[in-house]
Amino acid sequence: MWSRVPESVKTLLWPLLLATFFAAVYTVRVQREMVDFDVYRRAAERAVNGENLYRPDDGHYQFKYLPAFAIAMRPIAAVQAPIAKAGWYALSCALLIMLLRWSVRALPERNRGERVLLWLTALVVAKFFARELLLGQTNVVLAALLIGALLAALVDAYRTAGALVGLGVFVKVYALILIPWLMLAGGVPALATAALVIGLGLIAPAVVYGWQGNMEQVAGWWRTVTDTTTLPNLLNAENVSAMSAWTKWTGEGPHVTWLALATVLGAVALAAFVVSRRRDVTEPLYLEFGLLMLLVPVISPQGWDYLLLIATPAMVCLIDRWSLVTRPWRIATAIGIVLVSFTMYDLIGRAAYRALMSAGVLTIGTLTLAVCLANLRMKKLA
Fold first, then answer.
1. Rg of the chain's alpha carbons, rounded to an integer?
2. Could you state, in order of their start, the residue ranges of all structural domains in the chain?
3. Measured distance CA(287)–CA(234) in Å, rounded
4. Which of 42, 36, 48, 35 is nearest to 74 (CA)?
């Protein structure tokens, strides 16, 4: 029946159906959640009044972003909380759809049809999209900025790419992982633009806090980020970082730092190997970008599972090329995707979910997918 509907009608119906779906989800569930959004709103209110942003007595919900982000979020403090929350949710939904579409359309030499690839990728990343909306997180803002940087680089707009990566740093500092990629993509102009944006962003809060006050806020940010990378967070089931995985596997102790460092260096070596083979393909930027985004949650000590949302381009690439690799690599890719995307207590039960998450299976799955991406480059498939 749906196949008989004219394409022009479908074009109009899809936005309406999606809007209705997201509105229903918000009304039934999400509006009572979004605890991370409350953190941003509280920081925005403090920024309006020039108050300290980083307070240990905020507990688990301490503000962990650079001061410029709180300044940028001040408009949400100017409206009533329910309106601000609904607006943030609507923006997040729009950006999630954009991220999915842009990730598919940016992939060079697609092997599958766009619509099929969209639906398959949506299924694989649905877990992270749902978690993003439920928490009211900022990963989708980061992902939108960085996928914009990829699109800009693909059309040789390297300064734009640099500016977007620079802005991404103030959403989440993880964006710094793309600095080497920027150098490969656009050279000095891209790097210089990113450095300029980052520099301006670091000093901009001085307008509110004064020069010394801004320095104190930056110091408070660093203290908060380092102080909260502690044992309770590392043992959290949803933490998929290398440091968290080794803590879960071997127990706490100085050896964890060395094991995690070795894992991170291995991930960096894998990325370096991929880059070393970039001359074997005509469009190397997409896979390199996707690999770096996939590795972020493993490298960062505070790499929560929902951060894998930014790995959407990596998922698109793996799904699209799945039929082009040999059976062992198809099996490895499938295992990685199952571990990463379908370890949900709704599917396997809460007890099994907790056991698997505490065993660090998402870290294993993520690293498996990273190796599968490297294989695509080795086989000259991406």
1. 21
2. 20-228, 229-382
3. 29
4. 48
pLDDT at residue 3 in the model = 58
Would you give the distance in Å from CA 303 to the centre of its chain?
Answer: 9
What is the three-state SS of the chain? CHHHCCHHHHHHHHHHHHHHHHHHHHHHCHHHCCHHHHHHHHHHHHHHCCCCCCCHHHHHHCCCCCHHHHHHCHHHHCCCHHHHHHHHHHHHHHHHHHHHHHHHHHCCCCCCCHHHHHHHHHHHHHHHHHHHHHHCCCHHHHHHHHHHHHHHHHCCCHHHHHHHHHHHHHHCHHHHHHHHHHHHHHHHHHHHHHHHHHHHHHHCCHHHHHHHHHHHHHHHHHHHHHHCCCHHHHCCCCECCHHHHHHHHHCCCHHHHHHHHHHHHHHHHHHHHHHHCHHHCCCCHHHHHHHHHHHHHHHCCCCEHHHHHHHHHHHHHHHHHHHHCCHHHHHHHHHHHHHHHCCCHHHHCHHHHHHHHHCCHHHHHHHHHHHHHHHHHHCCCC
Q: What are the pLDDT digits (tens) for 77-107?
A: 999 999 999 999 999 999 999 999 999 999 9
Flag residues of the chain having pLDDT under 50: none
Q: Report the alpha-carbon angle 32-35-41, nearest 5.
A: 110
Q: What is residue 299's predicted lDDT score, i.e. its pLDDT?
A: 93
